[in-house]
Amino acid sequence: MARPRRPCRPRHRIPGAPGWGDHNVRNALVAIAVGVDLGLDLERLRRGLAAFKGVKRRLEIVGEARGVTVYDDFAHHPTAVEETLKAVRRSAPGKKVWAIFEPRSASSCRRVFQDDFARAFSGADEVVIASVFRSSLAPEERLSESKLVDDLTAANVRARHLPDVDTIVRAVKNEAVDGDLVVVMSNGGFGGIHRKLLAALA
Question: Over the stretch 39-62, which tens digit does the pLDDT of each residue have?
Answer without folding.
Answer: 777 777 777 666 666 555 668 899
